[in-house]
Specification:
Elements lengths: L3 H12 L3 H13 L6 H13 L4 H14 L5 H4 L11 H14 L3 H13 L8 H21 L2
Helix pairs in contact: 1-2, 2-3, 3-4, 4-6, 6-7, 6-8, 7-8
Length: 149
Amino acid sequence: MTTWDDIIAAVGVAVAGHTDDGRRELTACWERTSEADYAQRCVIAHYLADLQPHLGDEVGWDEQALQAYPHLTDEDLAPIGIPAARGLAPSLHLNLGDGYLRQGRLADAHTQLVAGLAAEDALGDDGYGRLIRQGLAGLQERITAKETR
């Protein structure tokens, strides 16, 4: 069984620059969850995506995170300091849209951008909210540039 403390510790390893170790620890966390552990799986997959050396694997983990997301409640994410599950949606859509764009899947990237922008109002006026808004704006610019070629 994976605990939030296990996940936070594994993310900390990855954030400290130990990508391979972080990926191994998060993968072990994933393997100790069940299919019904939606909140943990969403968060683990969200972080695992960023630690993948291959784009296809990154997109696969981003898709896993987004598949778990609809099952989340605000209470599920409270233990890790996320007050509202809806606040995670823009980041999930941003990451998946970015991966799709880098794969050349322009229509899929656009779909994710639209979904991310639709949930943008859930972001706070803080560093995280500004970061995700900037990411969505950047994704929009890159999609527009590809569409006009």
